[in-house]
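Section handout, structural biology tutorial.
Before the tutorial, make sure you can parse a SMILES string by hand: atoms, branches in parentheses, ring closures as digits. In the record below the ligand is zinc ion, and the chain has 265 residues. In the tutorial you will relate the predicted structure tokens back to the input. Do not try to memorize them.
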Amino acid sequence: MAPWGYSKENGPATWHKDCPIANTGVRQSPIDLITTGQTCAKYDSNLKPVIVSYPAFSEATFLNNGHSVQFQPSAGNLSELSGGPLTKKYKFEQFHFHWGNNDSEGSEHRVNGKMYPAELHLVHWNSESPNFSSFQEAVGSNDPHALCVLGFFLKVGAENASLKPITDLLSKVKNAGSSVSFPGKFDLKAVLPETLTDYYTYDGSLTTPPLAECVKWIVFKEPIEVSTAQMEAFRAVDDGHGKPITGNYRPPCPLHTRTVAASFK
Ligand SMILES: CCCCCCc1ccc(S(N)(=O)=O)cc1
Ligand SMILES: [Zn+2]
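Predicted structure of the complex:
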């Protein structure tokens, strides 16, 4: 079977062939975050702010893997995540993006059916579990919270100076399979809103194969602004079949018996 992707032939509707959980899973991601009505997100006053400790990365690889662009620091990185709904400390693994062909589509999560032009995912794994001691092992562990992914919506507005080092690098990884070592330091903390207090959180999965149901999702209410030019830079990245990646987002999945908690009213 051709490797998975986002085209008609190998896109989300075909993933069940290699990954049955795509259709049989009851905690698949992404989802539509509904804020009013029956199945809406429920305010939980016990939810604390998310705490990140992201010292500037000094060594990292920026890669176009044909279905996204991914920033992965070298193994020595000490970036950590805790707080929010988490009871353990998580280690940073990588961040990557999902985007669309125009500003009305591109994010994986939706809010009352609304899509944003892109979504940033910061991927972490539980570094305090006795059952695994690497990201790869965490993914295969069947632990319901082996991973924690922070999701941030991107919306079009002012140029984002903190993300400029990343969007300026996109032309260097235009071809699928290409990667560059990230020049200099990158301050991820500067990309994020100051206070990480307002978010939705629920139990879900990876949004791409293997679609493992091991993710505690934390999706922030506050979008991050990027300029039109920065959005366009994502749309020029190729998918390995001589075409730009113009929509690497999975449609929303059924909630089943899950509830979504909100840290804000
Ligand atoms: C051990 C091999 C598995 C690699 C799984 C890599 C992966 C990480 C995050 C996401 S996402 N979009 O849910 O944040 C999807 C896939
Ligand atoms: Zn993702």
